[in-house]
């Protein structure tokens, strides 16, 4: 466990909020970008709500040539302090290299037919089972591919809103999304009619419970929508209706 830091006499040169991002999902890029605004020998404060940062940040600082000074626990987040190292003059080049690697990252999945109306998808250290392309049954052994698509869209918005709210220091007591989707011609999937089997409309309603400023929550929602890769992709082909209700 990292001991808490005594801030007496410590000058903070730059402060930023990392929200609930972890070091493997973009936080390191943000730290490098913020560190460029700190003079050599200066101190960067990063605020985070993600518990894994406590273990991951010190070794990253050593590897990057910065000094990890310690942390302080606040009411809603943890404050981490880093001193920009003398040997970190190439911070801009390191940031550019990290951005280039991130832009060229390729997600890879492997899928096998593993049973009657069942396929198994393998990605990273996960696997999940998918049923039919679409199903009208009340109960099935596995979710359909369409349900995974709709669920992934809603999940990207739910986690996106949580991240954006955390970075703004907003407290969301509860976030729940309802999602509805229709196909242009579902009978085309079965070969019963000629037609277009594509998804035609998707409606997502997000219900967020909070006592914080409504305008700030809506701004966080808009950023989550703008930064969702699934929203950006589906909007090119599907009528998307995205709504936020604050309670």
Helix segment tally: 7
Radius of gyration: 22 Å
Total DSSP E strands: 10
The proportion of residues forming helix, as a percent range, comes to: 25-40%
Described by the principal axes of the CA atoms, the overall outline is elongated
Sequence of strands across the biggest β-sheet:
1-2-4-3
| Strand proportion | 25-35%
Question: N- to C-terminal separation?
Answer: 38 Å
Mean pLDDT, rounded to whole units? 91
Order of helices and strands: EHEHEEHEEEHEHEHHE
| Secondary-structure class | alpha+beta
Task: Give a brief rundown of this model.
With 247 residues, the protein is an alpha+beta fold.
Structure description:
The protein is α+β, with helices and mostly antiparallel strands. It is built from seven helices and ten strands. The chain has a four-stranded mixed beta sheet with strand order 1-2-4-3. The protein has a three-stranded antiparallel beta sheet with strand order 5-6-7, with no helix packed on it. The protein has a three-stranded mixed beta sheet with strand order 8-9-10, with helices on one face. Helix 1 (23-35) links the parallel strand 1 (14-19) and strand 2 (43-48). The chain is elongated and about 75 Å long. The two termini are 38 Å apart.
């Amino acid at each position: 466990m990292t001991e808490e830091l005594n801030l007496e006499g410590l000058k903070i040169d730059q402060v930023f909020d990392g929200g609930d991002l972890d070091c493997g999902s973009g936080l390191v890029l943000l730290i490098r970008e913020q560190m460029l605004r700190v003079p050599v020998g200066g101190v960067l404060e990063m605020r985070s709500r993600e518990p894994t940062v406590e273990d991951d940040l010190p070794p990253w600082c050593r590897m990057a040539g910065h000094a990890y000074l310690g942390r302080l626990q606040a009411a809603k987040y943890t404050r981490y302090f880093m001193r920009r190292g003398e040997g970190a003059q190439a911070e801009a080049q390191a940031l550019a290299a990290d951005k280039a690697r991130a832009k060229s990252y390729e997600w890879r999945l492997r899928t096998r037919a593993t049973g009657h109306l069942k396929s198994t998808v393998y990605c990273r250290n996960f696997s999940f089972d998918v049923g039919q392309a679409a199903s009208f049954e009340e109960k099935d052994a596995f979710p359909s591919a369409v349900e995974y698509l709709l669920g992934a869209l809603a999940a990207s918005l739910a986690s996106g809103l949580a991240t954006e709210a955390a970075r703004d220091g907003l407290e969301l007591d509860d976030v729940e999304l309802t999602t509805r989707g229709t196909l242009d011609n579902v009978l085309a999937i079965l070969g019963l009619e000629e037609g277009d089997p594509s998804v035609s409309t998707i409606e997502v309603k997000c219900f967020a419970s909070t006592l914080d400023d409504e305008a700030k929550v809506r701004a966080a929602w808009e950023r989550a929508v703008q930064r969702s890769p699934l929203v950006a992709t589906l909007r090119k082909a599907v009528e998307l209706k995205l709504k936020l209700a604050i309670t």
